[in-house]
Design a protein that fits this description.
Layout: E1 2-7, E2 16-21, E3 24-30, E4 53-55, H1 61-64, H2 67-72, E5 78-82, H3 83-113, H4 125-132, E6 135-138, E7 143-147, E8 150-156, E9 164-172, E10 175-181, E11 204-208, H5 222-235, E12 240-243, H6 249-262, E13 274-277, H7 279-290, H8 292-295, H9 298-305, E14 316-318, H10 322-328, E15 336-339, H11 349-356, E16 363-366, H12 375-380, E17 385-388, E18 391-394, E19 398-401, H13 411-420, E20 426-430, H14 434-448, E21 452-453, E22 460-462, E23 467-470, H15 490-507, H16 514-530
Parallel strand pairs: 3-4, 4-5, 5-6, 10-11, 11-20, 12-15, 12-16, 13-14, 13-15, 16-19, 20-21
Antiparallel strand pairs: 1-2, 1-22, 2-3, 7-8, 8-9, 9-10, 17-18, 22-23
Length: 533
């Protein structure tokens, strides 16, 4: 029996672990890298066609997003997950394939003008549909033998509808070992879904560390805080635009707004309309409803028992077609518009920002994390102008960020989860950037007196002997410097060198005063505007 770490090692996305046991070869998660990749990941040690099955903790693309590519490259085994995860992947992987094909088409048009070959998508819609056909759904809290010597047990991780920690028990040549793959461990007191359920015991634990050195800060009363934003904006005749992730956060917002409407917290704007403008969010909302009995928490189920849908209400309008989306901005009433993407990088939200950012009566309300180098992050940090569809838009709307109901456990939640597992011989810490992973590993070692290891990609571990058989070293990705090109004119080389200097300045600006970062952002935007970028 051996385990090899592939992805999300000292990084937050791209989860993937390879296991060999009982004559079988399998993966736990096969996620897409999102954002800037800092370290090189090793390749899968076997061809996709040699893999027997995949275990999937949950539907988020950084855990599931490469499954269609695995199918395209020859994988034909089963993909084991919870029922809700299977349902969500049926829409999320198709949506991801649509994005891959759209981007490939766009890049190919540009390449054609340069006389270059077409750009091939990472995978196609047919590949996504093929991967979806391989899913085998499992209930929570039932031990299922999926092949001779290997059984799995899915436990609610409380992170997303259908999310799970997976206990894998393997018996080979009279030796039995159990491993828990935590998946993403959820925060407590999230709306709709249950708190994370703990694991009793295991020999080894592979656990995430997204917030391995941080604690959450959130409003004590989220519903009241949200209602105050709506009331203030509606009173001045404006709209509240909420950029929101289509799966998870959108459904949470609907749940909160349902409570606001039930309690009549908004005065003078009876039956205010709420638009959900995202086909993916609409499909995901239907999946939430269909999986309510197995995934909802007790508060949400109390609505169900009264015959009430907790994420639907009077005044909710779902926009599916592009014409329905466009019509929203012709509705003169004060309203809420919930649209994807959550960081304003793509999708219909950009159109709503174009129509609403310049209006001082409006509010742009961010309810989730905004990564660096995104439009959402620029707005949160005080950008005065932004460019949308080639047009410079003045930012006059009120920009607010409501501390989110994070879907991830903070460091205290992670420690509580880790403490609950008895008999652990070693904790493997992954799915966190280097400071978070190393910090959590140290804290578990100090507080629990446990053996911990935060691997880099390529590290291997023998599950029988309990020894690390290959201690991989980090391999930072070396990015090519354009300025080294021999064909560059001296003047252009000077320009590229200046760009490299600006890039270094930006990368080292995190932690500066917000006012200084806003000044730098505005200066860069003015420069780009002057040169018509």
């Amino acid at each position: 029996m051996k385990m090899m770490f592939i992805g999300a090692t000292h990084e937050v996305t791209g989860s993937c672990t390879y296991v060999e046991a009982c004559g079988k070869k399998f993966l736990v998660d096969y996620g897409m890298q999102q954002g800037l990749d800092m370290f090189e990941n090793v390749e899968l040690p076997v061809a996709p066609g040699e893999l027997d099955f995949v275990l999937l903790t949950h539907a988020h693309i950084d855990h599931s997003g490469l499954l269609p590519k695995l199918f395209a490259d020859g994988f034909s085994g089963e993909i084991h997950s919870t029922k809700a995860t299977s349902n969500l992947c049926s829409v999320m992987l198709r949506d991801s394939a649509h994005i891959q094909e759209f981007e490939a088409e766009w890049r190919s048009r540009k390449a054609k003008r340069r006389g270059e070959p077409d750009y091939k998508p990472l995978y196609t819609m047919d590949d996504a549909i093929g991967a979806i056909s391989l899913f085998v759904p499992h209930p929570y809290d039932v031990t299922d033998e999926i092949c001779e010597g290997i059984s799995v047990y899915f436990r609610d991780a409380g992170h997303l509808l259908g999310s799970s920690s997976i206990v894998v028990t393997m018996t080979e040549n009279g030796e039995t070992r159990s491993i828990v793959f935590s998946g993403d461990i959820g925060n407590i007191d999230q709306p709709l879904i249950r708190d994370p359920q703990y694991i009793d015991k295991a020999d080894y634990v592979v656990m995430e560390s997204t917030y391995g050195e941080r604690r959450h800060n959130r409003p004590t009363d989220y519903v009241t805080a949200l209602a105050q934003v709506l009331q203030r904006t509606f009173d001045r005749g404006g709209n509240v635009i909420i950029p929101s992730f289509a799966v998870g956060r959108t459904q949470e917002m609907l749940y909160f707004i349902r409570q606001i409407k039930d309690a009549n917290l908004i005065k003078g704007h009876d039956n205010f309309p709420v638009y959900v403008d995202s086909p993916l969010a609409i499909e995901a909302t239907n999946i939430f409803i269909s999986n309510r009995e197995s995934c909802y928490d007790e508060e949400a189920l109390s609505y169900i028992r009264q015959g009430i849908n907790p994420i639907s209400f009077e005044g909710l309008v779902r926009a599916v077609s592009s014409d329905e989306s466009k019509a929203i901005n012709f509705d003169a009433r004060p309203k809420v518009i919930i649209s994807a993407s959550g960081m304003c990088e793509a999708g219909r939200i950009k159109h709503h920002l174009k129509h609403n950012l310049w209006g001082a009566a409006n509010t742009i309300l961010f309810v989730g994390y905004q990564s660096t180098n995104t439009l959402g992050r620029s707005l949160v940090e005080g950008a005065k102008t932004v460019k949308l569809f080639g047009e410079t838009i003045n930012v006059s709307a009120e920009i607010l960020q409501l501390p989110g109901v994070s879907g991830h456990a903070d460091v205290d939640g992670l420690m509580n989860w880790a403490k609950a597992v008895s008999g652990v011989k070693k904790y493997f810490i992954n799915h966190g950037d280097a400071p978070s992973a190393d910090s959590l590993a140290q804290r578990i070692r100090e507080e629990l007196g446990a053996d911990t290891y935060a691997p880099y990609s390529g590290a291997e571990f023998d599950l029988i002997s309990g020894e690390i058989t290959y201690d991989a070293i980090p391999k930072p990705i070396v990015r090519k410097k354009t300025s080294s090109g021999a064909n560059l004119s001296p003047t252009f080389r000077d320009l590229v060198d200046a760009a490299d200097r600006l890039s270094r300045l930006i990368k080292t600006s995190d932690g500066r005063a917000n006012a200084d970062m806003r000044k730098l952002t505005e200066a860069i935007n003015r420069l780009c505007d002057d040169w018509e970028i």
